[in-house]
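Render this sequence as a predicted structure.
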Amino acid sequence: MSALNTSVVEMVKSIKKGEITSEELVKNYIKEIKKKEKDVGAWEFFDEELAIAQAKKLDLLHQSGNHGDLHGVPVGIKDIFDTVDMPTTDGTEIHKNNPSLNDCTVVSKLKQAGAVIMGKTVTCELAYYSPGKTKNPHDLNRTPGGSSSGSAAAVASHMVPLSVGSQTNGSVIRPASYCGVVGYKPTRGLISRHLVLQVSRKLDQIGIFSNSVEDAALISEQLIGYDKQDPDTSLNPKPKLLAACQQKPPMEPVLAYIKLPFMDQLEEDAKEGFEEIKDEIKNQLKGKIDEVELPEGFENIPTWHKIIMESDMATSFSKEYKSSKNKLSDKIVEAIERGMKYTSVEYNDALSKIDTANVFFKQFFHDYDAILTPPATGEAPKGLEFTGDPIFCTVWTYCGMPSISLPLLQGKNGLPIGVQLVSSLFDDERLFRNANWLTSKIKNEIK
């Protein structure tokens, strides 16, 4: 069985049937890592023996009839998630000697589901903007995006079938678009952030990368759930994402293409691609898509988001700033120093607008099944110093709404451009149903 051509859903079935062992599957991916890691640089920490040891234990469990929903499947973990048997450096030399005393909730749940924790993937410095060593697998002279750089690139280069990342602005959706994989950011509060580096308590959200919508659903179902150790997690019923993928929408979806105030930043080939997508939905797929303007004031969301994010960074990284400012990049120092200058009135006003925006969107989704929108300005930018502009993710991260990037378009250089779908808060099931509908209908239609 080729590790490159099989979905995670099928991998788990094959292991359960005894068609392949966990150890064989893991070794398939180790071969890919040995072939590609030197060029791509997706891994901050990888220990071949540790990965194989986990797989062997899972094979013993298989023999006794015990199977988790991710039994034997390798998963990459962004290097801001604490792992008891691997270092967690948060993309900075300041944290290189910080021990991880416990697994974070996400890693604990993955282990409980039978996943093999393959290693730690590269993150930008403190999950912000300054990039690590990772390159885009489609063009090694371009960025993979950030800050979940290694997680996106590892899945895109088939060094691992699944990975976990985080998003405070555009750090899951944008790298997924640049690297040509599925990236999913659930509704804020569905996945615990316990023992994950905190950038902003109000904005931080966990996300995942995969090569299919179904695989994204499978891993996400293992991670979603209330955790008393993260007081912002939700007590809402767990969404049945995998089942939603397998359902047809009750009728052809009604989509909204919102003319965001910064649409002028969308590159020409991306504009053309979205015009094709819209035409395809209307003419071939029998769906409906309306162009919609946001109410006055919504153009201020990037400013409000910035105030919250940078104010929270000033708090979250105060220790690093005070003790090791000289070891931080200029970018993060500037952000922290701006964060120190905002007033409490500015901060609280920016926070209050989240509820205002979500009241609007709650009503909005009475008329629409999903928002169709770009995940990034276009193809991955050239160069490795800049991880790209997250502006097309900011509104949805600010509001905490679920979003998914689907690898459906190509730019003028033959590089991936994603298509982002956004749904209403806690309506992640409908998001997956519509994502699977869109992917299955047009993936082979749009070139």
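Summary. The chain has a mean pLDDT of 96. Residues 256 and 371 are 5 Å apart (CA to CA).
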